[in-house]
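Board work, copied verbatim: dTDP-glucose 4,6-dehydratase
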Amino acid sequence: KYAQKDILITGGAGFIGSHVVRRFVQTYKEYHIHNLDALTYAGNLENLRDIETSENYSFVKGDISDAGFINQLFQENRFDGVIHLAAESHVDRSITEPLSFVKTNVLGTVNLLNASLGLATKNPDFRFYHISTDEVYGALGESGLFTEHTPYSPNSPYSASKASSDHFVRAYGETYGLPFVISNCSNNYGPNHFPEKLIPLFINNIIDNRALPVYGDGNYTRDWLYVKDHAVAIDLVFHDGQNGETYNIGGFNEWKNIDLVKLLCRLMDEKLKRPQGSSEKLITFVKDRPGHDLRYAIDATKINKELGWKPSVTFEEGLALTIDWYLNNQEWLDHVTSGDYKTYYDKQYQQ
Ligand code: NAD
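↓ predict structure ↓
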């Protein structure tokens, strides 16, 4: 269906990026997928163990905030498109170290945009695809949904840095005519999620009978999307999205945090064959995060109507798949929690 292309995917060793890389490598044999990742604490090449020897895949280690390195990379390769996922992504870390979020999410994005301008002038089919979050829209009250026209109102250093990068992408489109698309997605969950994030953290803690720390009263609400459904949406937006447009991506799946934790506890008791109620006893309420947004919910009508996308699994199905994956991949989890995943790159790529 598509001509031969060289595609740069940034952040491909991370949670969502690894699912996007796998989908592109396996679906588009005629493409060459270049995965650029700095391998921070969140980047783990073990996520891509199954496809790393594919002929149409290569890995480049590097930091997007290093302009010299990025310019050199774009001079040596004639990328036809960039799918940009590399970011500092954890809200709690952004509260303690905001500058690293500015460096990677803002400066890193602008470096990629600058380098892309040169390629876009030579190749009319070039496209810059920026992956972003619904957190740029701020918080909702009890009702309403984020649409593509909701004004930006970020509340955390993380969402402020993502909002800033979204604006730079749009501005490069307006000012220099760079062909771009943006998507803003709700919370993802699924295999390969770093265990500092809620769902994998709680699965891990339940396995080990450790406390489940729930912020505040547990009433804040998020929309959850299975990560492989996000990867399908990214594929569709990259290929069929309109230049200069934004697409909201969400699971039509809103959950109060406490209800999500109770559902997870019930499913874990079933999977681990523990008496119902054992995991719920581990719930402990802890002091709320500062600036914690009450509710996010996405209206994904546009991508549904224009590109025909919708989630393929229900929340309960997706959670069951996720729990099975964590139970069957204890080695991955052990490596991540002990820090051993860091030696994987040295062993595989440095010999
Ligand atoms: P992640 O933290 O799991 O992965 C980020 C990846 O980027 C890691 O592999 C890391 O090594 C790499 N990276 C970080 N700094 C880098 C740098 N300076 N140079 C090169 N690589 C660097 O994040 P994720 O959850 O997979 O999120 C991916 C993207 O999707 C982010 O842009 C995030 O804002 C966005 N997003 C995430 C969610 C979610 O629920 N996780 C929802 C919506 C949007």
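The two ends are 38 Å apart (CA to CA).
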